[in-house]
Amino acid sequence: MEFGVQFFPNIKPEEKSSAQYFEECLKLCELLDVYGYTHVRTVEHYFHVYGGYSPNPIVFLTAASQRTNKARLVTGAVLPVFNNPLKIAGEIGMLDGISNGRLEVGLARAFIPREFEAFKIDLGESVERFDEGVEQIAKLLENENVTCDGKFHSFENITSFPRPLQKPRPQFWTAALSTEESFEKAGRAGNWLMGIPIAGGKMKELLDIYRDAWITAGHPGNGRIMLAFFMFCHEDHDEAIRIARTQVDNYFISLVDSASGWTTGSVSNDYRNYDKILASLKKENLDTQIEKCSAWVGTPNELVEMIKDYDNQIGGFDDGSLQVNFTNMTYDHAEKSMKLFGETVIPRFK
């Protein structure tokens, strides 16, 4: 099992400026190689404090690539629905070169109604735009003189530059929350999987769908699974809970507010039961997240047991992608937590 760091900005400008937030994130990236973290990841979101500081993960990961020599750079995730595939392919090729071939490309459908409204894109086009976008990006990275006649984007005889350093292209990840079809499609396509266990529920069943689809499609091995967790490690249990509680609780307040469109009229067959998912997320807090093993908060020994228990519950996973400075966590707290986890927990899983 490997562990990396995920930066998911969920911060108000009056709490931290973008300059301060990114300075702190990049300083934390300098700890990755020293303490054995194997990836750094960030998101693409817009127009809300929930993720809004990161409208382009490529930009942040380019800066991060200069603070670590070993860690993989993972988009977590790029949203084809809001981007032209010609632009995405060029940016991927550029960062793959800058990082000397360390880029891995996570792709997602997006799920926040307000983002679709602002870009004037129908929620009902989500799946079609994702499928077409991923296919076109892959062709542009793998081939030269590419022609595509799509429903949303078309181009003729295009060679994307710079060409990716990795051949035939950087590895793709698919981000999936709760839709069985998304897990099956990722396995069938041979993409690695980004899962999000914050909602609890049937994660083992969903991961089994992914693994079965991977094997049925004839891909070697069982695929690769990355799951996202809150992580705060401290020598004192009570102090760990005290420091992390407000940050996790406020994270869910912000998440629910950003996606409130699902409870105020947004409807789409591409997002079945998202109103119910949002209603369940409204009830989440640090205690429920610890119970679901989605928040790793406590002493090193407690975290080791949490990780082992969850790994057994779901049939195994490969990468823990850790939110280490979630919401308004101070730099000092995040730094000490990362160092302690790197010194005392990561070695237990090597």
Can you describe this structure?
With 350 residues, this protein is an alpha/beta fold. The chain has a single domain, classed as Luciferase-like domain (TIM Barrel, Alpha-Beta Barrel). It is built from 13 helices and eleven strands. Helix 7 (180-189) links the parallel strand 7 and strand 8. Helix 4 packs across helix 6 (126-142) and helix 7 packs parallel to helix 8. The longest helix is centred in the C-terminal third of the chain and has 22 residues, at 237-258. The mean pLDDT is 93.
Key attributes of the depicted protein:
43% helix, TIM Barrel, 350 residues, 13 helices, eight-stranded parallel barrel, alpha/beta
Quick take:
By secondary structure, the protein is α/β, with parallel strands linked by helices.
Number of domains: 1
Q: Bin the helical content.
A: 40-55%
Walk across the major sheet and give the strand order: 1-2-3-4-7-8-9-11
* Low-confidence spans: none
Tell me the total number of β-strands: 11
Number of distinct helices = 13
CATH architectural designation? Alpha-Beta Barrel
Radius of gyration: 19 Å
CATH class: Alpha Beta
| String of helices and strands | EHHEHEHEHHEEEHEHEHHHEHEH
N- to C-terminal distance? 7 Å
- Beta-strand proportion: 15-25%
Class inferred from helices and paired strands: alpha/beta
CATH names the topology as TIM Barrel
Mean pLDDT: 93
Largest sheet: 8 strands, parallel, barrel
Blueprint of the fold:
Elements: E1 2-7, H1 18-29, H2 32-35, E2 39-42, H3 57-64, E3 72-78, H4 85-98, E4 103-107, H5 113-119, H6 126-142, E5 146-149, E6 154-158, E7 172-176, H7 180-189, E8 192-195, H8 203-216, E9 225-233, H9 237-258, H10 274-281, H11 286-291, E10 295-298, H12 300-314, E11 319-323, H13 331-344
Parallel strand pairs: 1-2, 1-11, 2-3, 3-4, 4-7, 7-8, 8-9, 9-10, 9-11
Antiparallel strand pairs: 5-6
Helix pairs in contact: 4-6, 7-8
